[in-house]
Amino acid sequence: MTSQLKDSSLFKQQCYVNGQWLPAQSGKLFAVDNPSTCAEVGQCPDFGAADTEAAIKAADVAFKSYRKTPARARANLLRAWFNLMMENIEDLALIITLENGKPLADARTEVKYAASFLEWFAEEAPRIYGDTIQASNPDCRLITLKEPIGVCGLIAPWNFPAAMITRKVGPALAAGCSVVIKAPGEAPLSALALAELAHRAGIPAGVFNVITALDNTVEVGKVLTTHPIVKKISFTGSTAVGKLLMNQSSSTLKKLSFELGGNAPFIVFEDADLDVALRGLIASKFRISGQTCVCANRILVHSSIYETFLQRVVDTVKNFKIGDGLDEATTHGPLIHARAANKVHDHVKDAVSKGARVVFGGEPLSDLGPNFFNITVLADMKPGMKVCSEETFGPVAAFFSFDTEQEAIELANDSEVGLAGYFFSKDSRRCWRVAEALEVGMVGVNVGAISDPAAPFGGVKQSGFGREGSKYGIDEFTITKMIMTGINT
């Protein structure tokens, strides 16, 4: 594998703690497999509780000095890290594709997206402002300061193994915090490559720590969420796991930001520009084979254009090429593992058993491997099917029909989660009405790709709380301290 890299030193198989590359104290390793071929890519340490505690203590020591680093110095460190990422796009993309399976083109896009958070928060670091406030007592003066919260435990997912780390680490380091990152067990190599670049950028030892675990994931998560030194947990993953981590974090009342599951509605009204809506749906639904938390899970189309739009989607997806992400001709790669493929198949079978119509695909692509599932288009979906209440996280476009705007809004909001929602219409008055009526944290109006370092990312309801990216993202890693001074005492 390292022979394919321009810089083989980016391929790391040890954890990065206190500026050093370390194995697990137990010596235990776990394999990292390529989802396309099922071949082993590498091995990483299966850190346990004692390893994790050592990383936390290293971060605590580093925090005491790093928090005093001038904001401009922190900005320069992040900028140096950003530059190194941009200089190593091809190698970082290759590592992502090998461990995650997404096509190289998507992996390159992710690296640039990941780097953009370091650039954004490098620019935000010197702009952490407090306030002066008029005190009710005229003999007092009142100000607020923003201070770094402390050691942060960051738990990242596998679907964007680089970007979901930098989106958390960028604001944490900009604010003056130190971090312990639990890399995803399915795709930890990207996090370790980022650690190597962070080391080269001059980020002080102990400020940025990356630990890996697979069999010990639950144990590591419990240490991070219950350790009194850790003051903040940021987690991206499922709602079920988020609830567990929130419960564990309550023992020490940590500050939390959780980006959890989604079930995004995608509404196409009768007055929509169908060309724009089609581009938006393809971007939202099928990016990395539907394995994004903001991808369209329920596609609601007005009955007057239902069959027309459905056919246009089929005409588009039938030209996709599914295969190994390393093949430049591949447009869509595998799912992360066989369990994910089986879940997608279960959703399709459930829908068909309840009256849905398979318009395209609908079956595993077993000849390619156990992790592949065909691009699928389902029509005549109805409430009560699993797609309505569960996030498919796969390449299934499930179409529902509606007749009125109110019906579309009710269908869209009929979910326990509320991360993202999309709709397409040329009516400006409708755009405001529907945008404000959707019970989600993020709305795409006539656009299907809403991720941007300048945009606050996060949800409502059981999709979590807190925001990542944007000017709001740094607030998640600070505390507001009030100072009142008596001037006539």
From TrEMBL:
Annotated pathway: Amino-acid degradation; 4-aminobutanoate degradation
One MF term in the entry's GO annotations: succinate-semialdehyde dehydrogenase (NADP+) activity
Entry-linked Gene3D superfamilies: Aldehyde Dehydrogenase, Chain A, domain 1, Aldehyde Dehydrogenase, Chain A, domain 2
Reactions mediated catalytically: succinate semialdehyde + NADP(+) + H2O = succinate + NADPH + 2 H(+); succinate semialdehyde + NAD(+) + H2O = succinate + NADH + 2 H(+)
InterPro entries: Ald_DH/histidinol_DH, Ald_DH_C, Ald_DH_CS_CYS, Ald_DH_CS_GLU, Ald_DH_N, Aldehyde_DH_dom, Aldehyde_DH_Superfamily, Succ_semiAld_DH
Domain of life: Eukaryota
Enzyme nomenclature, EC number: 1.2.1.16
GO biological process: carboxylic acid biosynthetic process; gamma-aminobutyric acid catabolic process
Keywords of this entry: Oxidoreductase
Entry keyword annotation includes Transmembrane helix: no
GO CC aspect terms: cytoplasm
Domain named Aldehyde dehydrogenase: residues: 21-483
Active site: 259
Family annotation (CDD domains): ALDH_F5_SSADH_GabD (cd07103)
Presence of keyword Oxidoreductase: yes
NCBIfam families attached to this UniProt entry: SSADH
Family the UniProt entry places it in: Belongs to the aldehyde dehydrogenase family.
Name of the molecule in the record: Succinate-semialdehyde dehydrogenase
